Amino acid sequence: MPEDDAIRCDACPVLCYIKPGRTGACDRYANDNGQLVRIDPHVVLDRAVSRGDSVVPFLDRDREWDGSIVTGPENFVTAIGAGTTYPDYKPAPFIISSTVQGVDMVTVVTEGIFSYCGVKVKIDTDRHLGPETNLVRAQGEPVGHVTTSEYGSQMLSLGGVRHLTGGSRKEGTVTCETLLNLCDRKPVELTIDDGATVIVQAGKVPVVDGVQEERMRVGCGSATIGMFAKQWFGRVDEVVVVDDHITGVLSEHQAGKLLGVRETGIKMKGHRSTPGRYFRVAEPGTAWGGTNIADPLSILQNFNPKFAWPKLRLLMVSTTGEHHAYYELDEALRPVEKELPAVLGESVARIRENCEPALCSVLFMGGAGGSLRAGVTENPVRLTHSVRDALTRVTCGGAPVYVWPGGGITFMVDITRMPEHAFGYVPTPALVAPIEFTLKVKDYAALGGYMDHVRSLDSIMDGKGRRRLSANANNPWPLAPGKSPRPDPGSDPRSDQ
Amino acid sequence: MKGRAQIRWLEDGRRLHLHDGPIDLIVEAFGSTDEINAAYRAAAERFVHVLDELCGELTFLRQATQANGPPPSGVIARRMTAAVAPYCQHTFITPMAAVAGAVAEEILDAMTAAARLSRAYVNDGGDIALHLASGEQFVVGMVERPDRPSLFGTATLDSAQPVRGIATSGWRGRSFSLGIADAVTVLADRAAVADAAATVIANAVDLPEHSNVTRVPANTLAPDSDLGDRLVTQGVGELSPAEIDNALDAGVLVAHGLLAGGLIRSAALHLRGNTRIVNSQSSFIAFPESRSLAHA
User: Fold this and answer.
1) Which of A15, A348, B58, B186 has the most CB atoms around it within 10 Å of its CB?
2) Residue A204 counted as domain residue
3) What is the pLDDT of residue A1?
4) Does A204 touch chain B (CB under 8 A)?
5) A195 inside domain
6) A191-196 mean pLDDT
């Protein structure tokens, strides 16, 4: 009989004993805490069977194979797995033609080695992750640095040629692995010098020093007062917005004063900054508004009887709306908790609604250098000009990119819009990323393209080893005509639909 | 147990996906429509019995092969035992080291016996049996890291060459490995022979006692593993260029021995982006030296 917690799988006659957290010989059935569960199929060597490919029944009456080759009506070939031919300056591996609304389009598909590349990471948290410019480490090796704080988020800049190839061999290897894992949407633990340890995973909630973030607060306590003062005025006499950074008090706050909110005699603990704004009402924590407060009344002193009155209505709420309590003062001017009136419930719900889920976002940034461009055209600078002149559309694994103004083709792409496993690496160390250039055939010829090497889409689609994926419905179709190949400088690349 | 096996078309409508328990095959046949359909039917009819046959003598197949020991009864099990027999006097090996290749061969044989095909392959998780009629050829892509599939190169095999089996082994693959190779790909005359040889060569690419290699007794991971309490590789940390060379040297030595003994035709050994190729002088089979990419 199996020892410890191994279970016997009876899904097939192999009858594996499977340990907790392991799979059986098939890689399909696993022991999940004593339960036999079925998991995703293993990615086998044949890439075409990778996750997501649909399969149809064999010898099903209506679907029996008739000898025809199935091709979808619209296919875009990405550069993932295309490889290239450096340093021979041969034409890029695939130069593919397809017809889009009567205009012959060419997509030049290549995979580039990017020594000049990195990721920009945006972590939605108000927690202090570490001082600006301090080193960010993975496995003890420096892989980047802390850059600016943005509204509700902290930014890290990771990778770049100095960490990849300018430091020790280990620094380069760890940097490459960190970038690859982040681009592959895997969780990565990063430690900031004199700061926090953060687990970052693209599209997932950040974990700071072991605490999972929930929501971005709508603003600090003071800002929340400013935003919602009008909605509270006349419906409640006093509002305290509890916040780890700045706690706001409606009657004392500029916004309350302007509305003519009457003085309430409320007395806060903590340090008053400017009227209605208090620093450090409590210690940081994971309770009310990022503080350690469990009972919000603990940050109040007794009301001043000169101004306060019985039946005074008091709302206390956190900056995310996740915590709230409603009180009325009794005859002795002591707050007594009451049920939240519906009209105030709406304002609490609105605060919550305005707090977006905290996420980590990862943008890959790289520059397409001379030799990569030489795989596209005999005259590389013309490709740069063509991209500048909006004749050529650049995509990365089919996803739209933001191309920086100025020289070269330096671009950024949201890796969650790309197919999974789109990146690779070489031991240089450097990252391998897909890049596609799409333009009209006549423009391609005009910029010195390798017209002899243009292949039809059909000749690619019936080739072997192609992995076919559904397009990301949120991405613009890479071959769609009549749209700007790159967004205007300054606009959000996501808005390029 | 015919209801258990799954036999389906892949989305392209050309390849067949056969799945039963731990066996996962991709099959493609080339020829006239009638011949292809006949071949696929034969593959399906043979396939549904394979797992039950093997499991009927699984205990035997998980034990170390003995020179001149009793043969198993099943045709696939015999093929497995024959493939590992050349090694059993020098090292611990069980017939399971050749199971994937032997299953691939069996299905391919069923197909070619039932139909006249110009080409066909049966890919059992990277261990591949090939059929090539006169004048035909296959281009085979190769992957260095099965967990991060991307082609590092291709090999062209034509009917004039004797190679009909391809197999890959490495510690990152589905099966446990005693060595540290990322991947060892072997070309041999039969798939079961290639499978056993790839296992043996991948085991030999090693740095015994190295502190940066994490090894765990196989049966602590899978209690019924045929490897028992032998240490299998679960992680490989930082290696110096000299250490990578030493580990590959050890594998190349074994591969040369197998080449000289006529067991294999060619081998490609990969470790940390370093590749060694072992080819016979007279062979036209050549692995590409490495994949080249454009520097941005």
Assistant:
1) B186
2) yes
3) 42
4) no
5) yes
6) 94
Helix (H) or strand (E) segment spanning residue A227: helix A221-232
Beta carbon pairs, A and B, within 8 Å: 183
Judge if A245 and A306 occupy the same domain: yes
Closest by CA to B5, choosing from B15, B18, B22, is B18
User: A300 in contact with B at a CB cutoff of 8 Å?
Assistant: no
Of A12, A70, A86, which has the smallest distance from its Cβ to B294's Cβ? A86
Q: Is residue A473 part of a domain?
A: no
Q: Which domain holds residue A205?
A: 117-212
Instruction: Establish if A186 touches chain B: CB-CB under 8 angstroms.
Output: no
Whether residues A19 and A135 share a domain: the answer is no
Q: Are residues A204 and A239 in the same domain?
A: no
Q: Which residue of B has its CA nearest to A57?
A: B8
Backbone angles phi, psi at A226, to 5 degrees: -60, -40
For residue B222, give the nearest of A16, A70, A368 by CB distance.
A16
**Residue that is written with structure tokens 């945006």 in the block:** A122
In sequence order, which residues have a C-beta less than 8 Å from that of residue B271 and are 6 or more positions away? B180, B181, B182, B205, B239, B244, B247, B248
Domain ranges of chain B: 6-279
Q: Would the pLDDT of A80 be above 90?
A: no
> Which of B15, B234, B236, B293 should be substituted to probe chain A, the one whose Cβ sees the most A Cβ atoms within 10 Å?
B293
In what helix (H) or strand (E) does residue B153 lie, and over which residues does it extend? Answer: strand B151-158
How confident is the model at residue B151, as a pLDDT?
54
Eight-class DSSP state of A91: P
* Domain stops at, among A168, A191, A212: A212
Q: Does A81 touch chain B (CB under 8 A)?
A: yes
CB-based contact A6 B13, cutoff 8 Å: no
- The complex scores an ipTM of 0.83
For residue A86, give the nearest of B51, B52, B292 by CB distance.
B292
Whether residues A5 and A24 fall in one domain: yes
Structurally, how many domains does chain A consist of?
Answer: 3
| A248 lies in the same domain as A181 | no
